[in-house]
Amino acid sequence: MINTEIQLGLCNPPEPVYLYVKNGELSGESFLWYHYDIDKDKTIPVQQRGLTGYLSELRLTAKEYKGKENLKLDIVA
Q: Which single residue of 28, 31, 38, 50 could bond 45 by disulfide (Cβ 3.0 to 4.6 Å)?
C-alpha cells in the first residue's frame, strides 16, 4: 500500500520558473524550451521535452514584445 498522506507544514513558496518556447527544431536546434538570462541577453536551452505536474490555473496576459502587443500564457502549477 502506498502512503499518499501529505503532512501539514510551512515552507517558502516556490520561485516562479519562466520557460519560453522556441521553434528550434525547425531551425536545426535540438531543444524546444529555453530559459532566458536577461543580464547576459542569452537563451539557455532546456533539454527535457515534456512538462509534468498538475495545473491549477491557466491565464492569458497581454505583454509588449519587440514593440508589439502579444499574449503570454501563464501556467500555474
A: 31
Q: What angle (nearest 5°) sits at the alpha carbon of residue 68, between those of residues 66 and 73? A: 90
Give the other-Cβ count within 10 Å of 31's Cβ: 15
Grid coordinates representing 41? 541577453
Residue 57 belongs to domain spanning:
20-76
Q: Are 59 and 66 in contact (CB under 8 A)?
A: no
Instruction: Check: CB of residue 31 under 8 Å from CB of residue 20.
Output: no
Q: Are 34 and 19 in contact (CB under 8 A)?
A: yes
Structural domain count of the chain: 1
Contact 44, 36 (CB under 8 A): yes
> Nearest CA to 36 among 49, 46, 51?
46
Q: What is the pTM of this model?
A: 0.53
